[in-house]
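Q: I have 105 residues here and want to know how they pack in 3D. Can you give me a structure?
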Amino acid sequence: MKFTELMSILNDCYDNKTEIIIYWDDSLIIKSDENTGSFETDNGLDLDDEDYLEYYACAVRIKEILHKPSGPCSDSIKVGGFIEISELNEPLRIEAADGTVLWQK
């Protein structure tokens, strides 16, 4: 399990209470000013399963939805809710509220 630059950036945002804008490749764009900090998790498979994966993740709280894609999964995206960011749900880019790029895929 590797601690990535993405998790490091999200931890810095957590420590500094930085407001960020997060972009995904499905066109979802959210604004967040709160996250859980990084934590260890897995994909829910048995340890013996060859597809078992451990990874770091961080849940970010949705302060504002700037663009919401259409589709069945979009119904679960709500202001005040959380979205997990990890290598399984990696965004395209994270910017500070002033437009400074903090991380990019």
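Q: Anything worth noting?
A: The beta strands are 20-23, 29-32, 39-42, 54-61, 64-67, 82-86, 93-96, 101-104. The chain has a mean pLDDT of 91.
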